[in-house]
Amino acid sequence: MVSTSWRRIKEVLAGISAGTIVSVRGWVYRTRSSGNIVFMTLRDASGVIQVTIKKGNLPDPQFEAAKTALIESSVELSGEVKEDPRAPGGYEILARSVQVVNFAEPFPITKDQSPEFLLDQRHLWLRSRKLTAALKIRSTVVGAIHQFFRDRGFYEFDAPVLQPNQCEGGSTLFEVKYYQDKTYLSQSWQLYAEAGVFALEKIYNVGPTFRAEKSKTSRHLSEFWMAEMEAAWMDLHDITEIAKDEVRFVIGQVVEKNPDDLAVLERDIETLRKLSKAKYPTITYTEALEVLRTKAGMEVDWGKDLRTVEEDTIMKFFETPVVVTNYPLEIMAFYKPPDPKDPKTALCFDMLAPEAYGEIIGGSQRSTDIAQMSERLRQMGEKIENYQWYFDLRRYGSVPHAGYGLGVERLVAWICHAENIKDTIPFPRTLLRFRP
Ligand code: ATP
Ligand code: MG
Q1: Over the stretch 214-225, which tens digit does the pLDDT of each residue have?
Q2: What is the CATH number that goes with domain 119-424?
Q3: Which of 60, 81, 119, 178 is a good FRET partner for 20, with 20 to 30 A between their CA atoms?
Q4: Which residues contact 64 (CB under 8 A, 6 or more apart)?
Q5: CA 165 / ligand 1 centre spacing (Å)
Q6: Are 162 and 185 in contact (CB under 8 A)?
Q7: Closest-lying ligand 1 atom to the alpha carbon of residue 404
Q8: What is the pLDDT of residues 329-342, one digit of tens each?
Q9: What is the CATH number of domain 9-102?
Q10: Entry pTM
């Protein structure tokens, strides 16, 4: 090798090293040869570049090795950077030395394969350009969430993944054997966060969340990552404004850091730029039903939860996310309190995303009424003893507090304009799949 100071392909494509010799390493993305010349496209995490390998420009055994290296072989090479308007990215490398690190076997993934086959081959399909782009955006999103809360004085706070209680309804719990006993995988960080706010006041977390979702949808995973926040002394209005700021901030960070990845995904960056600055409206559930009735001729009985079709229909009339507050109390989780101004509704909200991406955030103020919560839990068949620790939080210096959870994959799916939430997580777990 001429040099072992490796360049990222993206840096080479930036043109600063035109005319000089560079060393790059990565994987064969495409290759074709005719006689004494090999046209190879090389991929690394940062991009792809065309490499022209001519017999005579490098030792013969190296040329022969380059010629026989199949797609996804790993390669280290060096050569001269040349401007070439016909090459993708505008630059190519004329190879002077090529070392095949590993000759790949024939790659099992070829064009036009079924989604199920690609999920079986997920460990290899991760290398595809679109998935790579989506995962880079996911990384920006998670980093931005951490930054957003830390900048505002929130502490990162971890909850146990193994939990004895349900939070979001018993029907989606994953049961785990726990020595001689049984426990459940976390459905939410929230109940523990409610303990945490009495020590740290403002806390957040991005963590794995598990729900046995028994229907197949393009929005539900069995294992997903939820970004949650909880804060003492805050009410519903306070947290809806934080949620709007958070989503705008995250989108702004992706616009700034991932323009190339958005281009790979063919996602219009201007749409996102506008969304990072727009005002997001707040309406009530009752007003949302009005939108459905007057604008779409859809009648929904007051008291019913909004289904996917209704959420999507409402959002046809908005270009930004919308916060919907005050859902009917009856259909809400036990910890959501009634609104004193309208007690048949709860002090809660969902944020719905436009472009038919549905709910991305759910949150609420938290009830401080032990009797009311006990009654709701009893109706659900829960053992009240299991919740005594949670009720203690209302017995020792209770304060108003509120919080919400944002589905990381739902937000990434919307930002990427992905067809399915599975395109936003490395190894999706769903009703039908937990392999590889
Ligand atoms: P849905 O009605 O869509 O099932 P939910 O009301 O059960 O959502 P919450 O309990 O409010 O959701 O959870 C907070 C957020 O977590 C949701 O707004 C969503 O973004 C995300 N989320 C919930 N369930 C899933 C899931 N199974 N897969 C991926 N994300 C999810
Ligand atoms: Mg759900």
Answers
A1: 988 899 999 999
A2: 3.30.930.10
A3: 60
A4: none
A5: 18
A6: yes
A7: 14
A8: 999 999 999 999 99
A9: 2.40.50.140
A10: 0.96
